[in-house]
Amino acid sequence: MTPPRRAGFRPIASLRAHEEVAEQIRRGIALRLVGASGTLPPERDLARQFGVGRATVQKAVGLLEQEGFVERRRGRGGGTFLVGRAAPDGSVPGFIERLRQNRAEIEEALTFRLTIEPSAAALAALAAGEGELEEAGAAAQAAAAATTDTDFMEHDTAFHLAVGRASGNRFLADSVERLRLVLNDALAALPDSDAWHSWSNEEHDRVLRALVRRDAETARDAMAAHVLHADDAIRALLRSL
After folding, report:
1. In angstroms, rounded to a whole number, what is the distance separating the alpha carbons of residues 3 and 49?
2. Domains delineated in the chain
3. Alpha carbon 150 to chain centroid, angstroms
4. CA torsion, ordered 11, 116, 204, 239, to nearest 10 deg
5. Fewest C-beta atoms under 10 Å: which of 1, 80, 179, 203?
6. Cα separation of 163 and 142, whole Å?
7. Which whole number is the average pLDDT over 66-78?
8. Distance between CA atoms of 179 and 203, rounded to whole angstroms?
């Protein structure tokens, strides 16, 4: 049975494969799709997902360790741990200050998002294949089943990226990913509550139902409402800093 492609890893074939592996892991960390628990998956699992040998993964992890992304700990309870991962309450030193410093970029990204993500959803309703709809649906279900804010963030990001890819337009898909890279710290800093997760999950369901019905206008409207909900919350957060 093929393992699920949770982090969007692609098989690697290159003389410098370890650099490509390292770059995909960097992307996954930044998007909070990798290391949600604070650790990377075991090397054997990464090797299987990337389609490379363990030696290649070990070189990639060594490169990430040199760059300060991870640290490897040996012995009982060991593993490869992420360095400087912000907790949902922003407790990592400098996390809130980073939000203050990036305020203008975050606000610009919010404005851009209001155009990009509803458009991506509308196109996805017309262009998505069955596999892409299943991927978006699986991410929405996982977000609804999440019991921690960290897990919810991981699957929420996966849902939005899946809708972007389902649009069939690589520029829209790339834009959705770039937006998440800018906005994920702000999203992680929002107060964790059952009500917030419930609203978000209901909004995911509305988008998904419209995609399945191939209803482009409803998909656009549902995603716009979802994006506006987060937009209001993030702008309120930024005003409070």
Report:
1. 8
2. 17-82 (1.10.10.10), 95-240 (1.20.120.530)
3. 11
4. 110
5. 1
6. 15
7. 82
8. 19
